[in-house]
Design brief:
With 131 residues, this protein is mainly α. It has one domain (16-129). It is built from 5 helices and no strands. Helix 1 runs antiparallel to helix 2, helix 1 (16-33) packs across helix 3 (53-76) and helix 2 (37-47) packs antiparallel against helix 3 (53-76). It starts with 15 loop residues before the first helix and ends with a helix.
């Protein structure tokens, strides 16, 4: 049992090569497009690595910090980061993440999958029609 597993939870065998591949894809797209955790890793964790929806979201959240640090550090060398905007986004995101993580812990997997799919579809449509 690792520190991040609930006490008494059975240790599940995870497909290590698939997880590394998902990490590479998520990291590449995170650095290139500013996405990776939710939009890339969650669907791959569910459909390719066999994670339950809620576990995929939680695992993806656990991977965000190192991905963000590496991407932000790389971009900061070219002065592409608006530090003031990043700080303000962080303030709101910290508050929202607390509420969202609490909701995730109680969410039904099927409803979560439906909500997540609807969000991705709406984001895609908006991005296509906005410009």
């Amino acid at each position: 049992m690792t520190v991040l597993e609930p006490a008494g939870a059975p240790r599940l065998q995870r497909p290590t090569p698939k997880l590394v591949a998902i990490g590479v894809i998520g990291g590449l797209l995170s650095g290139l497009l500013g996405v990776g955790g939710g939009t890339i890793m969650v669907p791959l964790l569910v459909f390719w690595a066999g994670f339950a929806q809620r576990d995929a979201h939680a695992t993806s959240l656990g991977a965000i910090i190192p991905i963000s640090v590496v991407s932000a550090t790389t971009l900061a060398t070219g002065a592409h980061i608006d530090a003031r905007a990043a700080i303000l986004l962080s303030i709101g995101a910290i508050a929202g993440a607390r509420v969202g993580a609490g909701a995730l812990a109680r969410a039904d997997d099927r409803k979560l999958q439906w909500l997540f799919s609807t969000f991705l579809l709406a984001a895609a449509v908006l991005m296509l029609v906005q410009r």
